[in-house]
User: Fold this.
Amino acid sequence: MGTDEYLQFLKGKGFQLYDDAIGFIYFGKQYTNASDEQTNTAIELTLKAQKTFDGSFYMSLLEVLTLNCITSRSEAIQYVTDKKLLAL
Assistant:
């Protein structure tokens, strides 16, 4: 699923992301050269951990995913669980 579609999915589930957050999401995606799956996973894990969108948490997580060549959601969940970054 593309990031545009994922953001629409979240909106349908009741997550209200404002224009500044959406702009930051795309900035982070471009800055880190992240794939849609990496971006979507970083958004998901940010929302789960912070209960709201936190731009600095999202950016840090996205950088970790790209620098460690973590390309799938399952790898990302395993990584953050192993490193005790999140309790999922």
In short: DSSP finds five helices and no strands in the chain.
